[in-house]
């Protein structure tokens, strides 16, 4: 029996694809070309991730409550995309419940480039409790590191031009304000790092336009140039009774402020503070 998928809000999602210049033909090819590559999911959600054949889109299984939340927040989410074009939130291109199977697939943009191999990937929540990559994950060809790993690998942080830094956090604050308004937590910043010095054509790459679309130029403390790719992911988890209980239980065994699960306001504030002060810093031009 073949799976039958139908969009939950065809017209609304089509408007998002139009907003970001996704051509109908290209989108159809993304969905129908096979095989799709199954991606490793470093999170604890149990969702399955697929990379489309042309590597432009990510397909992810979502739970019933996540589908309901996406429907609930859609209008405000869409308004944010229009008013905040540099948003780091996922660009949801559609959401498809399967008629004859109990799964729903969301389709979103792939924030990572496909023409260069990233050297590091991080999933950052702003939490320190058990936010360290497992031995199993580190044995993989391209592991996704976590908050404590970032602080070890980049103890001085990553440096951005002042204007880039200010623009980034103006955008992130708007994104987090929207998520907080819908009582959403557990999201993270997915950050890909490309070390320019290892590129044989590095001398010819002097600005973001010399890299695949979406690059943000940055530097290490030692002055090594980096190209960054980033986005906020996993935005469909609400602070419900189950999450409140999880926070209470974990707070018994460790510092309550350190655990990942927090109420939406505290989660947002901690997330932004960590990214602002531990991950990114302004270049000192004085």
TrEMBL record:
SUPFAM superfamilies, A to Z: SAICAR synthase-like
Protein name stated in the entry: PIPK domain-containing protein
Alphabetic keyword roster: ATP-binding, Kinase, Nucleotide-binding, Transferase
Organism lineage string: Eukaryota, Metazoa, Ecdysozoa, Arthropoda, Crustacea
Domain of life of the source: Eukaryota
One of the record's GO cellular component terms: plasma membrane
GO biological process, one term: phosphatidylinositol phosphate biosynthetic process
MF term (GO), any: ATP binding
InterPro entries linked: PInositol-4-P-4/5-kinase_C_sf, PInositol-4-P-4/5-kinase_core, PInositol-4-P-5-kinase_N, PInositol-4/5-P-5/4-kinase
Domain PIPK: 1-279
């Amino acid at each position: 029996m073949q799976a039958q998928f139908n969009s939950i809000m065809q017209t609304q999602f089509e408007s998002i694809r139009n907003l970001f210049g996704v051509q109908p033909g290209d989108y159809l090819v993304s969905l129908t070309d096979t095989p799709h590559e199954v991606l490793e999911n470093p999170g604890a959600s149990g969702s399955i991730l697929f990379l489309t054949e042309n590597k432009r889109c990510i397909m992810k299984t979502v739970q019933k409550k996540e589908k309901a939340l996406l429907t609930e927040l859609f209008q405000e989410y869409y308004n944010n995309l229009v008013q905040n074009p540099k948003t780091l939130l996922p660009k949801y291109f559609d959401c498809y419940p399967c008629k004859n199977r109990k799964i729903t697939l969301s389709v979103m943009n792939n924030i990572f480039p496909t023409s260069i191999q990233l050297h590091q990937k991080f999933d950052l929540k702003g939490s320190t409790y058990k936010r360290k990559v497992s031995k199993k994950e580190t044995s993989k060809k391209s592991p996704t590191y976590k908050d404590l790993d970032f602080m070890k690998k980049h103890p001085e942080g990553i440096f951005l031009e002042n204007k880039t830094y200010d623009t980034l956090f103006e955008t992130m604050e708007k994104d987090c304000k929207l998520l907080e308004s819908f009582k959403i937590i557990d999201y993270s910043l997915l950050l890909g790092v490309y070390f320019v010095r290892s590129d044989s054509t590095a001398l010819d790459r002097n600005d973001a336009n010399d890299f695949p679309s979406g690059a943000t130029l940055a530097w290490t403390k030692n002055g090594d140039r980096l190209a960054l790719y980033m986005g906020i992911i996993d935005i469909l988890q609400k602070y419900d009774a189950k999450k409140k209980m999880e926070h209470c239980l974990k707070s018994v065994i460790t510092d309550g402020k350190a655990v990942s699960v927090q109420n939406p306001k505290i989660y947002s504030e901690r997330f932004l503070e960590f990214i602002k002060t531990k991950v990114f810093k302004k270049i000192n031009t004085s």
